[in-house]
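Running low. Invent one:
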Amino acid sequence: MTIKTIIFDLDDTLLWDQKSVKTAFEKTCSYAAAKYEVAPDELEKAVRQEARTLYEGYETYDYTVLIGINPFEGLWGVFDDPTPEFQKMKEIVAGYRAEAWTNGLKKFGIEDPEFGYELGERFVEERKAAPFLYDDTFTVLDELKDHYQLVLLTNGSPSLQNLKLEITPEIAPYFDQIVISGDFGKGKPDASIFASVLEKNNLKPEDAIMVGDNLMTDILGSSRVGMRNVWINRENKPHNPDVTPTYEVTSLTEFLTLLKEL
């Protein structure tokens, strides 16, 4: 079965999003520690927990699950997208950022809403200033671009995912098509978004392969349409008995080696 199209996930597959978020937290929390006696790592832990709790309590939560938007994207996204659901998120996020950081400070007996707001806005700028990619991202894409159709399939709001691509402008030109779940209306692992990619490109499931880091979105979703998939498991994450990838590798470079063998 000849592979014609390679479908890539974006976050933590090509972009090292976890490192970007971690760096933004470290810098923002260190800034807070310069004003108040608080350990940066402990403040980060508190703010992460407060952010999750707040995020799950908003009326938009079910929609964010459907589209695939996590709490930490809510801490820096603007959601300036036209749908009513994203407009509602746009109304919420400024207060969400401020409250998450303010509540995090409260865990240490610090009552300073103005500083909480400042930290929330500072985190946004620190995240924008910290776009990381994996060392082999461009090397692998360079190897593939002239031999396969490349599709980028990413969960998230169009405004935020496009912002990620704007601050790493080298990525988008590699791709023949970019599909964002917020534009489509449903996110991975819903089978319909994978089926749509196949249909739009006149592909059968055996013509394409999905490459991603997330078992429960990239691997589960692609398997639902009968597509082969590659789980990039860089961190030796545990397996899930209910979701079995076709292939498992530890890096994009290892995927490239695998692809040559298929």
Observations:
- The chain has a mean pLDDT of 96.
